[in-house]
User: What shape does this take?
Amino acid sequence: MIRYALTRLSLLVLGLFVASALIFVTLRVLPGDVAQLIAGLNATPEQLAGIRERLGLGDPLVVQYLTWLGGVLTGDLGTSQLTGTPVADELLEKAAVTVPLGLMAMTVALVIALPFGVFAAMRRGRASGTVINVTAQALAAVPVVWAGMMLVVVVAVWLGWLPAQGFPRTGWSDPGLAFRSLLLPAITIGVIEGAMLMRFVRSATLQAVGQDYVRTAAAKGLTRTQALLRHGLPNVGLSIITVLGLQVAGIIVGAVVIEQLFSLPGIGRMLVADVGQRDLPKVQGELLVLTGFVLIVGFLVDLLHRVIDPRQREAE
Assistant: This one.
């Protein structure tokens, strides 16, 4: 187990290194001049040259990359070229919105996917199971922006149950208001992700029902539902954990769109603004943190599989 964990950890570090290089090179291909954005349209060539020298934009790309990477290894993600504020500080501030939003969205997805997925599998061929399955397929195809707009119209405008946009300026000092501000965006992401996950839960449950150990348990006196809950779902859980790890990326993408729609001051909204302003150090830091988060989730999922499933340890 320790050897496996060290191997996966080394692959995680290698993945982060490759991702950092790709992010750095890709951003340099974008059109535009950061010095021009900072100095304005009426800046003289001397002023632009001074800004480029101060920011190190004239150094070779390899030197710029190694300088940035060295800072990352010490916890310094750089400084915004436009505002002069540390990138790490802004990321921590925005994470107070994005991280709870993602956790709430994942909770909504699980609450939808697990019970309805199992129910649809147990009711296969019946009207109730068919309705749930068709509904999940329809919801999985709905664009998250359109779903968010519809929920705003119905829940926020017509019913007035939840705020339509914004986040309290005081942040989480008022937990109730902050939670209510994130609830509708989280439901928007969670319903779409939950519908996709529900289809997988249904398929995995149907596969488990046909396994020999479930039929044997039923032959020993358990009902089909009892046999599935006691012996089938624990094995299905491993596959569900894997899919949940993959859906983290989908939730991150959904957060970028939803934060724009609901005017939430999170990492996604900041990323879109920084790309438009070509603030390269901030964009680099934001993309690296998001990529690292996805890679770390995959690493934890692999370790969790080894802990839960004794067959993998025995195979090793």
